[in-house]
Amino acid sequence: MQQPHPPLQAETLSGTAVQPPSARSAGWRKKLLHLHLFAALGLGLFVSVITVTGSISQYRKDIERWLIAAPAGVRGDTDPSATAAALKSRYPGRQLTALVVSRGDGEADTWTLRNRDPEAVVQTFSVFTDPGTGAWLGDSEASLTARFLASTYHFHHMMWIRTWGRWLVGVAGFATLILVLGGVVLAWPHLRAWVRSGRLLRFADVRDWHLRAGTLLAPILLASALTGILCAYIAWWRPPLLAASRQPVPASVTALPGEAKPDWGSVIAISALAAPNTTLHGVQAPRHGDTPRVWRVVRRWDGELSPRDGVLISVDADSGAVVGIEDPRHLDPARLLLFQQISFHIGWFAGLDVRWLWLLVGLSPPAFLVSGLILWRRRRANKATAKRTKC
């Protein structure tokens, strides 16, 4: 007959001596184990789907460029307005909504187009242009891969149901906090013994992998969960930060002389005057239903953590006047760190190696879910065997 596996609170764990817990300690640890178990059974699959879709979606644009866009050249003095006019002619019935410029030579600029027909199968898609010549390099309108990546992106951010979807994604962040913190507390008594014996990276069986890998990856998982919660409820805390970073508009850029209405090129020129010593990251055209209607331009500065959190310049869509400049560089260090939480969420605060590490950690929750279910089944089998033995 197969021998039952030893319980988690055994005196030895993979050959490493561990002090037995006291009766009081064993009581709350048992309650914590039940909380950890029920949270995993109830929300583990949901958390796994959220983390996996997030890991995939952070490389969405990179994958699209790699699969679709032709090789791009070196950035030149192209006129964005001319490129926009060419794209409008090429894609009638579509609306240009955003531009994200390339981060380096050989990388294409990315334009986002929205279909004006609400019944169209593809509502938004990307078009890639050469940063040096403005030439068309490809689009993702007919790409099934791009549709899949867009679906994962929208599911991770709002579960396809907008406002309430963000709340549910926030719930996944809180569930991750409970699971990770509970797992670390349960494994903590064994950590010192693992370090002393030099067996921290020894994975003898499923239980060893679940405990030790979970402990090692806990800091990144906690950082991703906390920043994910901030992203989910960003409408609550980000406006006060933007208000604190608001800067006075220089008189020299309060209007656009000689232009009836600003276009892509003039908006970019205005933003360069409003935020000197910065480089362009992206432009967003006025949204339908915006009051007032404004262009939004994000510009990067040297040493920033994430280009998504650069200087935000708002330009009136009718007059070309700069109506707002939010510059995070004027925030104190604590609020600046909070402002750039997206860089910690997706690993943009360092090089590509860190982004790959964040990707692997984001793909790990399904493995923890499966290994945890194996341990749960093993625990039930042990209890059943012990009950039969007593009988």
How would you state the average pLDDT, rounded?
A: 82
Number of domains: 3
What proportion of the residues form beta strands (DSSP E)? Answer: 5-15%
How does the overall form come out from the CA principal axes?
elongated
Low-confidence stretches: 1-16
Distance between the termini: 16 Å
Radius of gyration based on Cα positions:
26 Å
User: Helical stretch count?
Assistant: 12
- The neighbouring-strand order within the major sheet is 6-5-4-3-8-9-10-11-7
Helical fraction? 40-55%
Question: What this model shows, in words?
Answer:
The chain has 391 residues and is an alpha+beta fold. It has three domains: 143 residues; 59 residues, no CATH class; 106 residues, no CATH class. The protein is built from twelve helices and eleven strands. The strands form two sheets. Strands 6-5-4-3-8-9-10-11-7 form a nine-stranded antiparallel beta sheet, with helices on both faces. The protein has a two-stranded antiparallel ribbon with strand order 1-2. The longest helix is centred in the middle third of the chain and has 36 residues. The radius of gyration is 26 Å and the shape is elongated. The N terminus is likely disordered.
